[in-house]
Amino acid sequence: MEAALKAIAEPRRQAILRLVRDEERTAGEIAEAFEVTRPAISQHLSVLREAGLVTERRDGTRRFYRARPEQIKELQRFLEEFWQTGLERLKAAAEWEERSKRRGAK
């Protein structure tokens, strides 16, 4: 999970994941979407692959990339736990404040 979190911390990698979320794309197609060098995109793709967020398929000299939905879902579940916990804490704090106001008004 740590590798996946580090991988998506970089905005360009987030954009790459969006590109390959619904369809497989070649490294060249991905690189064309950005104003950086192909080697830079290759490094980003390596990080995403090592984190388990994309798969790589080779066909001759071409490399095709696609998001791994099961890994993305796992990451989503992990992040949603934090979101839910945060909402529960916010709710508890708001309820505590409301109770405090009521006690002060009496």
Give a concise summary.
This protein is an alpha+beta fold and 106 residues long.
Write up what this structure looks like:
The structure is a single chain. This protein is an alpha+beta fold and 106 residues long. 69% of the residues lie in helices and 13% in strands. It contains 5 helices and 3 strands. It has helices at residues 2-8, 11-20, 27-32, 38-50, 69-105, and strands spanning 25-26, 54-59, 62-67. It has a 3-stranded antiparallel beta sheet. The protein is elongated and about 80 Å long.
CATH homologous superfamily designation = Winged helix-like DNA-binding domain superfamily/Winged helix DNA-binding domain
Q: Tell me, briefly, the overall form.
A: elongated
Low-pLDDT stretches: none
Q: Could you say what the CATH architecture is? A: Orthogonal Bundle
Oligomer: single chain
How many strand units? 3
Strand count, sense and barrel status of the largest sheet are: 3 strands, antiparallel
Radius of gyration: 21 Å
Set down the secondary structure blueprint.
Blueprint: H1 2-8, H2 11-20, E1 25-26, H3 27-32, H4 38-50, E2 54-59, E3 62-67, H5 69-105
Antiparallel strand pairs: 1-3, 2-3
